[in-house]
Amino acid sequence: MAVALMALLVLSGFPGESVSAQQPTGSIPTVTGTPTGPQVTVYSDQTFIDVYAGPSMYDYEKIGVMAAGTSAPALGHTQDDNWIEIVYVGVKSGEGWVYAPFVRISPGSIPILNPPPTAAPQTTPTLNPTFVAAYGLKVVPTRLPTYTPPFPLKIPTFAPNARVPSKVPYGLIIAILALLGIFGAVVSFLRGNR
Which of 64, 111, 132, 161 can bridge 51 by disulfide, Cβ–Cβ 3.0-4.6 Å? Predict the structure, then answer.
């Protein structure tokens, strides 16, 4: 086994027929020109800005970012001048939208564009039929609460007072008790001075 391995190493060490890859014979054309027309450039105080599929950060998905100082050709803007559509290579449509206060636009005129249609939600909230069947859930629509009149109000009634009121007025009784209290206070004061 060792002899066979040595023979294999010795044979592979000899130079055989050299194979080289095919070399290109012509020149490859490249585009090195600068784009013409208005350009948007991200302000240097922004680290990066988001690029969206449409002119809203809530209604359209984020498709990429632009770093500070980078530029892209401007294609158009919204009616309120808050969003600018740019050429954004790397996405299927080749276009994206940036928020206008974050970028500087070079001189030139760009048209007003209508926003693209918003995308349908990726998921629709539904109940999984397998989950419902497995756990025996019964989804029953319920009615909204309705107005229920209150029970009739019962006003309590009192029997007439059968007791005969006294002939002495209550104010006279209070005045007599107040005079007795003042008299007691004067007596205790005089007794305390002795």
Answer: 64
**Best CA proximity match to 38, nearest among 7, 75, 8:** 75
| Residue 88 contacts residue 72 (beta carbons within 8 Å) | yes
Check whether 138 has a pLDDT greater than 80: no
What is the distance between the alpha carbons of residues 194 and 185, in angstroms, rounded to a whole number? 15
Query: How far apart are alpha carbons 99 and 85 in whole angstroms?
Result: 9
**Rounded average pLDDT over 105-123:** 78
- Answer whether 40's CB lies under 8 Å from 72's CB: yes
